[in-house]
Amino acid sequence: MIFDMVARMLNKAYSLVFPEGRLTLGLMTPLTPAAGVLADPATEKALAQHAEACGFSALWTRDVPLMIPQAGEVSALDDPFLWLGMLAAATKTIAIGTAAAVLPLRHPLLLAKSALTLDRLSGGRFLLGVGSGDREEEFSAFGMTAEQGGERFRAHWEIVHAALDDAPDDAAKQVLMNATGGYEILPQADRRIAMLAVGSARQSLQWIAANADGWASYHREEQRQQGRINLWQQALAQRAGGAAKPFIQSLNLDLLDDPDAPSEPITLGMRGGRHALLDYLRRLHGYGVGHVLLNLARQGRPRRDVMEEIGSEVIPQLG
């Protein structure tokens, strides 16, 4: 009930992705990634529409400001807000979100304006996930050090959070007045836009529990992840009021043709058939995971086939 009350205070996207008592699935976009190559917009819009028809709850994208190699690979990704604007225009009901925008590297007033605009144009379907960034070279290029990232994350969060609130209190109003000189960014939103912390964000878990509307983390070995979720729930319970907030997990997925293929680990995820996937998702939900963000295997089966199988055979059994 507490979780449901929180959801009613937030925009439509929050209820779409985090319905009480049910695990939902999202997809990382672009859905046809290739190292160092930009995705084709027409293909991605068609796949986004297909994901919506298959019953996925959200489409996510990452913020990678510079093409800096990481783990031996270079990512070529368009601006996340323009990209999500394209996907929002191509769809009607599915939520869209950043996982994550690099908060220390973005001016908080401009980030807030992008979020408010995208939420309005999408009809309340936007979730703002933010992280602190994990490419050391980017901090230097943007005129700061990695050590400054945590402090700047908190400072920028305070401004953006105040700007996205539909009914800011006196303290939030003062934060905005100090940041803008007394001017509005845009007229107030109808509902507050949810803000999610992605990764450690260079903050304590207690800070994230107190300030974020949810916490997103990457896939880990099951027992370790269960322990991490328990720590999250303990941090929430220590807060005044103890309102529940969702835990989100990413999962690299190579879904095989054979529905009975057993699960085997891959980097930050699993390979196996749909029965193994469903069993794993049910266990995650039992641990307290509210949403799983799928990264579909680059060299696996055609994306449409995988989405259709998950949409017809997995998603209906999660709720």
Automatic annotation (TrEMBL):
Residue ranges occupied by any Luciferase-like domain in the UniProt entry: 39-241
Enzyme superclass (EC): oxidoreductase
Keyword field contains Flavoprotein: yes
GO molecular function: oxidoreductase activity
EC number(s) on file: 1.-.-.-
Keyword vocabulary terms for this entry: Flavoprotein, FMN, Monooxygenase, Oxidoreductase
Domain of life: Bacteria
InterPro entries per UniProt: Diverse_substr_monoxygenases, Luciferase-like_dom, Luciferase-like_sf, Luciferase-type_oxidoreductase
The name this protein goes by in its record: TIGR03571 family LLM class oxidoreductase
Lineage, top ranks: Bacteria, Pseudomonadati, Pseudomonadota, Betaproteobacteria, Burkholderiales
